[in-house]
Design goal:
The complex is a heterotrimer of chains A (260), B (253) and C (277).
Chain A lengths: L2 H26 L3 H10 L1 H10 L3 H20 L6 H21 L7 H6 L7 H30 L1 H6 L4 H23 L5 H11 L6 H26 L3 H18 L5
Helix pairs in contact in A: 1-7, 1-9, 1-10, 1-11, 2-4, 2-5, 3-4, 3-5, 4-5, 4-9, 7-9, 10-11, 10-12, 11-12
Chain B lengths: L5 E10 L2 E11 L4 E5 L6 H8 L9 E4 L4 E3 L13 H7 L13 H13 L15 H15 L3 E5 L7 H16 L3 E6 L2 H4 L4 E5 L3 E5 L1 H4 L2 H8 L3 E6 L2 E6 L11
Helix pairs in contact in B: 2-3, 2-4, 3-4, 4-5
Chain C lengths: L5 H4 L1 H26 L3 H10 L1 H10 L3 H18 L2 H4 L3 H21 L4 H8 L7 H30 L11 H23 L5 H4 L1 H9 L3 H26 L4 H18 L13
Helix pairs in contact in C: 2-9, 2-10, 2-12, 2-13, 3-10, 4-5, 4-7, 4-8, 5-10, 8-10, 9-10, 12-13, 12-14, 13-14
The chains are: A mainly alpha (260), B alpha/beta (253), C mainly alpha (277).
Amino acid sequence: MSGIELRAMLEVVLAGGFCGALGFWVVSERLAYAGESLSHGLLPGLVLAALAGAPLLLGAAGGALVAAGLIALAARDARVGPDTGTAVAVTGLVGLGSLLALAPESPQRLQELLFGDPLGATDGDLAAAAALLLAGGAALAALLRPLAATSFDPSGAGALGLSPSLVRLTLLGLMAAAIAIAVQGLGALLVLAVLVAPPVAVRRHVRAPGTAMLAGAAVAAAAGVAGIQLSALVGTAAGASVALVLCAAAGAGVLLPVRR
Amino acid sequence: MTAPSVLAEDLTVGYGGRPVLRAVSFEAGPGQTVCVLGPNGGGKTTLFRALIGELEPMPGRVELSGRPAYVAQTERTRLDFPVTALDVALMGALAHGRWWLPPRRADRATARAALERVGLAAEADVLFGELSGGQRQRALLARALVQDAPVLLLDEPLAGVDPASAQLIDAVFADLRAEGRTLLISSHDVDGARGFDLVLCLNGRQVAFGPPAATLDRATIEATYGRELIVLDQEGAARAVTIHHHEHHDEDR
Amino acid sequence: MPSPLDLADLPFLREALAEVVLLAAAGGLLSAWIVLRRLAFFSHAVGSATFPGLVAADASGVSPLLAGLAVALGYAGGVERAGRAGREPSEATALLLVAALAGGVILASDVFESGAAVDRLLFGTLLGLEPADLALSGVTVALVAVASLTLGRAWSAIAFDPDGAPTLGLPVARADFLLLALVAVAAVAAIPAVGALLVAAIYVLPGAAARLVARTIPGLLAWSLALALAEGVIGLYAAYWLDLPPGPPVAVLGSLTYAALALGTGLRGVRAGAAPA
């Protein structure tokens, strides 16, 4: 087990752990499509950062912000509807990102940005992932009761002094941060799996939010480690391998009989 | 007794295997109007869906003489659809068969005549979304007219409609009745129901069916609307107003 | 800057131009229906889903078009069986697409060692368009045109009033499935030129932009067709000029056009206060 592989596994455990937990809320609040749109839409930010030699995290964060803004604008139009509006914004952003990346003068890093490069994790990436887990984890723990209240009874929560839209906004912000940090390892096209697959894998088996979040974190971390090891063993692309293991975990979770 | 144009016998129907409406048995003949009363969620729309064949009886029997015309409750998403009032009326012609061909001149004439009948002749080229609520309802009614169906099912056709449109619509209903068609109209207007030939009260099951004078007594009304009913006496008129936790779109004016 | 006339003069560009014109014609008409029937996500998903099949076929000598059609039509069938819920983006489809993309890239880079094919399959190519591609595009245009003429009225009535349309005697389920199947075939036809990831550039963007300015359905079809042709040809020229695959420039052009028209016609949010009943 080389140092590079150890770092890669550490990164997927840290980032994946947080994403697997956050994913419980992403799925229960039906934010999967928003997450998918955000992760595809931040591609130009990633490409610009890669072209400028800047840290990918900055590009991802900036790209996510711009994408969120454009998607929100486009989705508001009642004539085409939110789904079509989102599709327009995302297609344009993916087109822009790939246009910049495929220009002959650009260094050929597009596949790494699309499909991830866990083995290329830098110290900065590890630090960011650790920070995400700590700060994000604390935020999730603090928000657990408000999230549960607004998620399961939005109208009643208002009476408790909680604002469902504020809670939802916080969730979106956490999701954007998680995507921006995890995208280095899994790429813009695959990163959604680390948010959606773990909760899908556990939701038939574990119901309580707190336990489901922990279970999701565990599944994500385990899938991440397994994916990296598999890719080292068989010689396949690391990011894509992790993504496939995550999807397989989701499939297993859906098909396995529930223990009563 | 002439053969009924719409009939339900021991009908139980629901969604996903779970019944939401039980034991409905009624029939109506040509030229009869039926007012379907009941709280929201009581099964009025479910009944209509069963009558148009979208839901399978589980068990029970449904019979209609020919395909009915259905004017469903309007939804928000249709407001921006790029069709004019004439286009909407013309959709009724699809029911005449050969829907894969372009509309014929005769169909266009029929559509214009239908718009005339509902008082929308001048608005033929106005976009559906730019019409008022009452005008939209009239456009959908024009579509049902073009469809030329022996039975018409209308789900709360007067909800949110301005008085002028409501009057026009009522006049068209009277004409249709005179033409020998059967009308099933769901509504929250308990008082207005007394003007119908028959009433059908639903609340998860059939509470009562029959001529309004004999059927609409206090016990029946309470059994139909249950605890959600507030009976307001305004100028001696009784109206049913149901309270909902989430949305208020069923107050009848 | 190369002369635009090169598009007509140089043989390989002539083929690319013919392909783009055919696809734009199909895309212009079809995207009007895709936007009206809210199939934007489906049209993107069906393209991406074919990616692993295309990689495998490409490397093993099987016709990628056939492989693509098999996968796409299978996906369309699955979506149709899932009912109305199947068209909307969900966790299941999101994970399916991730698995397809991840599987495809592993097949390409590690199994078949055809890593260079990935860019071409995802974003399209100017070169290497085969007669089979043009043939499929031609068939697609013909199918879309015939379908628009015969099924158009039914599709409109169903989109306008999904509850009432069955009472008009319309074969709703079959008309719906034909539309999904048509979108699937059209998506596969577009992949050689614009790539599996950007089929929406041809099948969503023109219709969406046209929707902002057209008042009636014939107007929508006309605008969509015009925009698709313009975006396709100009995008092709840009691809030639900047030495890029055609998918990205067409996508960027399409979204910029949409943005311009949205700003021009005034951003219209969801109507507040429209009476729901």
